Amino acid sequence: MFRPTHFLFALFLFSFLIEAQAARSEQIEYPTYYAHTNGISIAYQEFGNPEDDTIMLVMGLGGQLIHWDDDIVWGLVDAGFHVVRFDNRDVGWSSKLYNLDTPGVITGLRYKVGMSLGAPYKLSDMADDALGLLDYLEIESAHVVGMSMGGMIAQIMAFKSPDKVKTLTSIMSTSGAAELPQGTVELEQTNGIPTREQAIARTVRMGQQLDGKVAELSEEQWKVIGARSYDRSFYPDGYMRQLWAILDSGDRIDLLKSLQQPTLVIHGKADYLIPVEHGRHTAELVPNSRLVLIEGMGHFLDRISKPLVIKEIVSLANSNPS
Q1: Which of 129, 143, 154, 134 lies closest to 80 in space, CA to CA?
Q2: Whole-angstrom distance, CA of residue 288 vs CA of residue 283
Q3: pLDDT tens digits for 69-102?
Q4: In angstroms, rounded to a whole number, what is the distance separating the alpha carbons of residues 305 and 172?
Q5: 160-176 pLDDT, tens per residue?
């Protein structure tokens, strides 16, 4: 089971730290649509020709669809694919489950002693959301790419609906095995809900820890990322429920051993949040998977790593067309 160093202090490790899109003075806003599936509303965007093979992008913990940045999306479209990115439940513009509890002190104590945590939803429910979005869009099958928690969701999607997942790409994710090493990122303890300025400053401090070794962002670039994320959607309760879902969903060891889809596992060698051993273990479990380790990449897709990742995703998809 994936065990972060600090459970209750992880509240403000926002998804915009998962990847570092290049800071731009202007951001293009694309049309956002809504799918009503699995009892909730999912906000999504589409790019490219719907007649082409689809690549579905699944974001990580607390992540919004904008954190699959435009370079990635258009790189895949230019390679001849229809691309779908979306907000998971409880973040961005998708349904916020206001009526559900958030984890508290008792949850942390239960976690420490290995008890069930009673999360109001689990990763399998989030996988059903994504599969339901494919149904809503009348997409029979797709190449599914997940990053961090999104990789965990993508793994479950491939297990639950092998007919809908042509290929699986798991990026900077994990099998959830308890024996794997914990990350060394220092998560901040916080009191109360931060102001916009405090949240952005925390982004900068955290981002500097998650930077890789080859393409570090400046403080101003991190501020742009933090501001855009905060202004689009700021909902800490949803982040905490997603974290709760991860902690209460167990490992995926047996699930990964059973996968039959062509699978690509990508991990950065300088990932200090989910160490590279997690990627290696995932690839060891999935039969006939391909492992790609990127020198100097941290827990985000930097400007140097992105072209490599796009190339690998396209290569896998082109080798397994409709």
Answers
A1: 143
A2: 8
A3: 999 999 999 999 999 999 999 999 999 999 999 8
A4: 12
A5: 999 999 999 999 999 99
**Residue type for position 37:** T
Q: Cβ distance 70 to 48 under 8 Å?
A: no
Q: Is the pTM of this model over 0.85?
A: yes
Do 298 and 268 contact (CB within 8 A), yes or no?
yes
Domains of the chain: 8-319 (3.40.50.1820)
DSSP 239: H
The bridge status of strand 165-171 relative to strand 290-294 is: unpaired
Question: Contact at 8 Å (CB) between 250 and 176?
Answer: yes
**DSSP-assigned letters across all residues of 46-109:** EES-TTSPEEEEE--TT--GGGS-HHHHHHHHHTT-EEEEEPPTTSTTSPP-TTS----HHHHH
